[in-house]
Amino acid sequence: MSDKRVKVINIDKSVPKKTKIVQTKNQARPGAGGSLAEAKARKTPHPRRAGTSRKKPETESKKISMPPEAGVADPSDDAIRLRAYFISERRRRFALPGDAESDWLEAKRQLLFEADRR
Fold it and tell me: What distance in Å separates the CA atoms of residue 44 and residue 58, rounded to the nearest whole number?
């Protein structure tokens, strides 16, 4: 029989890590082709946002009620058909239960809700 020897590889050797180049604010980027002052001059300042409180426009603060006889008209069949198509595509993509009739009813419900909000 032949002697087969397994060569043992030393896996305990550590691999040297890459050194990270840290720049200070006073140093220019290498290859930037200019000083930090030139880079700041080229940079366009962003306007600051106002505070977090937002004033509501007058149209949102006043609710205009419609007379009850001026009801919202039913959406057209083409609008319902288009919305139902996108609902069915989403349903198929996420493997949700349902059928074409439920998609049609959901599309009509969404369109009536959106028309009611206007």
Answer: 34
